[in-house]
Amino acid sequence: MRLTRGKLLAGAAAAALLALTGCGGGSDGKDGAAKETVPATATGSLEELAAEVKCKPSIQTDADEIRQGVCKISTGKFILATFATDRGQREWLDGAKDYGGSYLVGAKWVAVGDQKMVTTLRGRLGGTLEQGASHHAGGGGAGETGTAHSGHHGG
Predict the structure, then answer these.
(1) What pTM was estimated for this model as a whole?
(2) Nearest 5 degrees, angle CA 94-CA 58-CA 108?
(3) What element of type H or E holds 141?
(4) DSSP state letters, 16-45
(5) CA separation for the pair 103, 127 (Å, rounded)
(6) pLDDT tens string 87-123
């Protein structure tokens, strides 16, 4: 019964979020609609997640700790990675974010692509959007991982 109760609570939370975002103002534009249609975060194997967005991944890494592949869909290309543990996922993501980029983060999976791609994927897979470090000269103020770690993770 806990699984059912958890699903009910997750559904109630999602409904509350939709109610809050739907009643926020007079925005009938597409931006408001896109935020309201974010599904629950997907789970599954690399192949199951890829199937959700209608791609067949080209597997690059097939190890116990991580499976990673490249997916191509009509709107472009992205990398999809699945992890054996939450800790492994977070360590990988923390290291990868040093290189910049946009990340869609789910339950033991990450999709990597440009901002437009991960936003598109979020409409099918759910998840949380995260940004990597900015590598613009002069530091725009948000570079907490900026140049301090440049080249730090060698070999």
Answers:
(1) 0.65
(2) 35
(3) none
(4) HHHHHHHTSSS--SHHHHHHHTPPPPP-S-
(5) 10
(6) 999 999 999 999 899 999 999 999 999 999 999 999 9
